[in-house]
Design brief:
Oligomer: homodimer
Structural class of chain A: alpha/beta
CATH architecture of the largest domain in chain A: 3-Layer(aba) Sandwich
CATH superfamily of the largest domain in chain A: Aldehyde Dehydrogenase, Chain A, domain 1
Number of strands of chain A: 23
Largest sheet of chain A: 7 strands, mixed
CATH class of the largest domain in chain A: Alpha Beta
Shape of chain A: globular
Radius of gyration of chain A: 24 Å
Strand order of the largest sheet of chain A: 15-17-18-13-12-19-20
Largest interface: A-B, 89 and 87 residues
Helix content of chain A: 25-40%
Number of domains of chain A: 2
Number of helices of chain A: 16
Strand content of chain A: 15-25%
CATH topology of the largest domain in chain A: Aldehyde Dehydrogenase, Chain A, domain 1
């Protein structure tokens, strides 16, 4: 039997008392470790985090908490090799893909350490300037942001066990709010190991960082009024969380980041073979294959002028054809596995569903696996589908509704820009869209047209061909989240991320009281 | 039979096809008008608002929309007398209380007209500065706020048919988002009349402002992904809205402002008869009786040092004893009616419930009615209860849980400041707390301690005795809303109110694209 990973709750390492759920290597099929949260006293653990962890964190200033984030970065960097090994084994990712998760997580944590330092030795933030409440300037209103006195529960997705932890934990801990992380079971090992390293290093006050691996049963029942919940995952689970009595009856703040049908748009009047054309083909092929397409930000729909449909199909397909798929331990492999059997089946079923309304432009089934047994390994080649014509793009409703969470995207030809925008909006809100063109005014105008339905608009023009940060890469400086289908949440965006963990309040008082308040380091 | 008020939807005045629900005079018991939303095609009406009203509003700039708000202010001011007549008849309020609703609403609308002008001739807002995404400054991230392409549905409470409309509609319309207002049936007349005056004046594009009076059945079913819903009312209805499939499945943004058990705190070391002592007694008596205590911001719990319990009880009771109750048409009357029979019964039941854990310090039953028939009029005198001792304050859990929505408050003695703060927090999140004291540092410190559990902290020190804007008065400059029990919403707060109607998006692009975007007046 493999090792059962201990949970950290109530200031103690606790092993579940149940049968345990095994985690597997998606390439070799071997069992790695087990998770088990059976028998944990969740209400007591949450109360401990709230009272001990929260009070200890709030007693520190932003600068002191930022220093802790920096210290955590050092611990994680020292153990980086172990994380890469776990990721290879448990996520089946090649090194470059592991880097997106492991190094991306550490980078984000480091970014918040730097941002936090700029907040200084204070315990709350001023929000804007004081405003007069009448003609006499003696009585004014000053908004303040103070940390919520609850826990931050994170229920995370399997695709980013490291980044998903730290992009949420960094702003929470910096805000003075204790974190309880419940990673997705399939890849919980990496999250658990990172938390263990940081906890064992004694960086944060006890109760500031807890980890629960296994079933999520009972977690939402332990939530109280001033707690916050952040969830990344499916729309179905998001609906369960949103309608949970703790949320519905206690006004608990919830942030949801759900899957979405992201898009890439090659602007009209772009010639085949132009720089913008090539940049689109390159980015789409990269987005489809990074982490085997298991990114919530990955491009799923590629909008191109109808006249360029065939040329774009060929350009992307040519790149996909070069993608070697298989065992991430083989250095020639460019794309590893899907996370597990269930995801493999889900992708296969999704392909069947989409193919009924599309044609195959590049067939993933033509890729043979390198160093991997097709009967065991959860690997699939990248597949590009297409809707054939502008009319087909209107008719193929599944393309706009369905996210196949793997190396799958669909080429969607459009008649004119208005048609393209209408089709993109059929995604009903996405995390990100990317635009490809060379005229700044046209790009700016299209970006504004799509801003209300996207959390991020990534504009790739030839001048930033080598500088841009990638359609699917989430940078801590920019908002992550999107409306509607994408869940309606907001994460990151620099210091904006701290808002979720703070409460805004208007203090109306005489200027002498407001002066005392502004100068307060309480 | 009285007149059936027409609804304005789909760009037309439409009278419901059902039996109609009568509205009454709560003092005289006479029927005034009827409301009826039966047979309205809600999906078509919402689609019309979304497509016609939304597109027309978004085609205008902030400055142009601000000018429309100014024009609406003029129309409302011209019809002010009619609104006072309707309020007297339908809400049973004295003139000073009507002013809080009618003039407060017009003032808030005017404030947003001024704020909007400062936004200039633009169609979107920049959110913060651009941030570098790497060492090379050519590729950056600029956050923008663009109006959501949906409708704003307001489901409002009976106590502020005017202010409740305009404090929400002003920021929505200024943002470029069409409004559909569903007033509470009991007092829908004033809302309907104000909308009618503004619609008939042809100020806003058709579809920008709609009103539906009567049942709320079907309203939430008509909600789509990019719509927003703002609700003011009970926690029970709030839970129904939050768990509605449109919200749970479509990530629809919802703002809730629910009832809360607000507090006033006389700080320790305040002598009986001191200025702070008197300011507390005066404000509590005022808060209890304005609009017969039917304000979601009204003081429900008064925290005082145990040694001052009797003195404060006497000071407040002396003021309450002078409150003449009855027909608002009689100029000697200082407090009018509750809104209807149902509220009268609710207040009476609430009093019975609270009295089981408290003593009566001033009995509302001792007030005889002026110019009103006690068998008909929905009038009650103000009642002050008390928990007797600091121990009693701990034991009387109902006092901290129960909002009696009428002229009722409870005096709660505390041992020391820490005890007071703990007791106040038993309200589980409130709209507002007010602090009474004279030392700026102590007041600032207490304000920060309570900021995380209150949307607003109102500090009354002797220097602002005549300048402060009142515990329960909601100023457009300051946030309105509170965490937890208070619903977790955020309204007003100056331009912050516009955030709810805008979507935040990060545009990542080359500086040339971002320059074109910043200069865009699109």
């Amino acid at each position: 039997m493999t090792q059962k990973l201990p949970n950290f709750l109530n200031g103690q390492w606790q092993t579940g008392s149940g049968t345990g759920t095994p985690l597997f290597d998606p390439v070799l099929g071997t069992e790695l470790v087990q998770v088990d949260a059976t028998g944990l006293d969740l209400p007591a653990g949450f109360a401990f985090a709230r009272e001990q962890g929260g009070a200890a964190l709030r007693a520190l200033t932003y600068r002191q908490r930022a220093a802790m984030l920096s210290a955590a970065v050092k611990v994680l960097q020292a153990n980086r090799d172990a994380y890469y090994d776990i990721a290879t084994a448990n996520s089946g990712t090649i090194k470059n893909d592991t880097a997106v998760d492991v190094d991306g997580g550490i980078f984000t944590l480091g970014t918040y350490a730097k941002l936090g330092e700029s907040l200084g030795d204070r315990h709350f933030m001023l929000d804007g300037e004081a405003a007069r409440l009448g003609k006499d300037p003696l009585f004014q209103s000053q908004h303040v942001l103070t940390p919520t006195r609850g826990v931050a529960l994170f229920i995370n997705a399997f695709n980013f066990p490291s980044w998903g932890l730290w992009e949420k934990a960094a702003p929470a801990l910096l805000s003075g709010v204790p974190v309880i992380i419940k990673p997705a079971t399939a890849t919980a090992w990496l999250t658990q190991r990172m938390v263990q390293d940081v906890v064992d290093a004694g960086i944060f006050p006890v109760g500031a960082l807890s980890v629960i691996c296994g079933s999520s049963a009972g977690l939402m029942d332990a939530i109280e009024t001033f707690d916050v919940v952040s969830f990344t995952g499916s729309a179905e689970t998001a609906a369960v969380i949103r309608s949970h009595p703790s949320v519905v009856q206690k006004s608990v703040r919830v942030n949801i980041e759900a899957d979405s049908v992201n898009s890439a748009l090659l602007l009209p009047d772009t010639a085949a073979g132009s720089e913008s054309f090539d940049l689109l083909a390159k980015e789409v092929a990269r987005e489809m294959t990074v982490k085997s397409g298991q990114k919530c930000t990955a491009i799923r729909r590629i909008f191109v002028p109808e006249a360029l449909y065939t040329a774009v199909a060929q350009a992307i397909s040519a790149r996909l054809a070069k993608t070697t798929v298989g065992n991430p331990r083989n250095e020639s492999v460019r794309m590893g596995a899907l996370v597990n059997r269930a995801q493999l089946v889900s992708v296969q079923e999704g392909l069947v569903y989409l193919k009924q309304q599309t044609e195959i432009l590049h067939d993933g089934a033509t890729h043979s696996l390198v160093d991997a047994d097709a009967a065991v390994a959860c690997c699939v080649g990248p597949t590009l589908l297409g809707t054939r014509s502008a009319q087909g793009s209107d008719d193929a409703d599944r393309v706009h509704d369905t996210e196949v969470f793997g190396p799958v995207a669909t080429l969607v030809p459009y008649r004119d820009l208005a048609h393209a925008l209408t089709l993109i909006r059929r995604g009903q809100g996405s995390l990100v869209t990317s635009l490809y063109g060379s005229d700044p005014a046209t790009l700016a105008s299209a970006a504004l047209e799509l801003a209300d339905s996207h959390g991020r608009v990534h504009v790739i023009s030839p001048d930033v061909a080598v500088l841009h940060t990638g359609h699917g890469n989430v940078m801590p400086q920019s908002l992550h989240g999107g409306p509607g289908r994408a869940g309606g949440g907001e994460e990151l965006g620099g210091l904006r991320a701290l808002n979720f963990y703070h409460r805004r309040s208007a203090v109306q008082a005489s200027t002498s009281v407001l002066s005392a308040l502004s100068e307060s380091t309480n």
